[in-house]
Amino acid sequence: MQVFEKIKYTREFINARKAEGKTIGFVPTMGALHEGHLSLVDQAKKETHIIVVSVFVNPAQFNNPDDLQKYPRDMEGDMQKLKQRGVDVVFAPSEQEMYPEKTSRTYDFGHLDKVMEGKHRPGHFNGVALIVHKLFDIIHPDKAFFGNKDYQQLVIIKQLTRQENLPVEVVGCPILREPDGLAMSSRNQRLTQQERKIAPVLYQTLKKAVELRNHQTVDAVKRFVTEEIKKTKAIELEYFDIADSNTLTSINKWSESDNPRGFIAAWLGDVRLIDNMAFN
Ligand code: PAF
């Protein structure tokens, strides 16, 4: 496994593989890797020849300095996991390497980055788009793999590639869950033992909501989720919405979407968790 900190050497290595006719699969990460990330690596290995993983905690996407400071980091553990999984290249740049100059670039994703995560984390998706655009420009992947857990991010990255004409196929991969249903996330490490026991309530509530779909209105399901979450005092619901999976437009009637999805964000202590589930 090659580990590069510099853009120049990463580009040289990838260009040489491309010249040999190899396809490049890319998994962007912020490190603190878990099985969810590694499942993206496995998928990339099925679909492309050379697997590149980036590990970079991107300051531009954190709207909350405390969240950035507390974001888990484990470079040594990450390297071990990636090596074991048969990754070819790790790109682990410094902040100076990725942002040599202050950038004021802003993207316009219309409605997509104004709702849900975009509404509650101002500037977050601009920071994500900025770094993913830079990474795509360095790595020139044929395919890039993202988890469905950050579903809104996935929709926005697909839009980014369309509006910037980026020649990369964006592949969404299933959410990996712990045996009790909690969606895998680097942030789970920050939960206390007590909070960790409570956290699967988000998954359980989403699952019950999906079961209600056939005999309840959209409004009734939204109310059910709000009430259900309220029963667990330690959880503070930030939002729950049911929206179309492609347009992320909130729906009021089931007939308004062929592909509705429930999106939830909630706080457990000072840890913010998100999850989502298809309603069909
Ligand atoms: O999903 C993430 O971990 C990050 O948002 C990403 C895509 C690596 C960009 O920093």
Description:
With 280 residues, this protein is of the alpha/beta class. The protein is built from eleven helices and nine strands. The strands form two sheets. Strands 1-4-3-2-5-6 form a six-stranded parallel β-sheet, with helices on both faces. It has a three-stranded antiparallel β-sheet with strand order 7-8-9, with helices on one face. β5 (143-147), α8 (151-163) and β6 (169-173) form a beta-alpha-beta unit. The mean pLDDT is 98. The structure holds pantoate. Residues 28-30, 58, 61, 128, 131-132, 150, 153 line the site of pantoate.
Produce a short descriptive summary.
Helix content is 39%, strand content 20%. The chain contains eleven helices and nine strands.
Layout of SSEs?
Blueprint: E1 2-4, H1 7-19, E2 24-29, H2 35-47, E3 50-55, H3 65-70, H4 75-84, E4 89-91, H5 95-98, H6 117-120, H7 124-139, E5 143-147, H8 151-163, E6 169-173, H9 193-198, H10 201-212, H11 218-230, E7 235-244, E8 260-268, E9 271-278
Parallel strand pairs: 1-4, 2-3, 2-5, 3-4, 5-6
Antiparallel strand pairs: 7-8, 8-9
What small molecules accompany the polymer chains?
Answer: pantoate
How would you classify the helix and strand content by structural class? alpha/beta
Main pleated sheet: 6 strands, parallel
Low-confidence runs of at least 5 consecutive residues = none
Tell me the strand percentage band. 15-25%
Helix content: 25-40%
On the 0 to 100 scale, the average pLDDT is: 98
Please give the CATH class of the largest domain.
Alpha Beta
- Could you tell me the CATH topology label of the largest domain: Rossmann fold
Q: What would you say the CATH architecture of the largest domain is?
A: 3-Layer(aba) Sandwich
Number of DSSP helical runs: 11
Over the alpha carbons, how many angstroms does the gyration radius reach?
19 Å
Q: What order do the SSEs take from the amino end to the carboxyl end, as H and E?
A: EHEHEHHEHHHEHEHHHEEE
What is the spatial order of strands in the main beta sheet? Answer: 1-4-3-2-5-6
* Outline: globular
N/C terminus separation: 41 Å
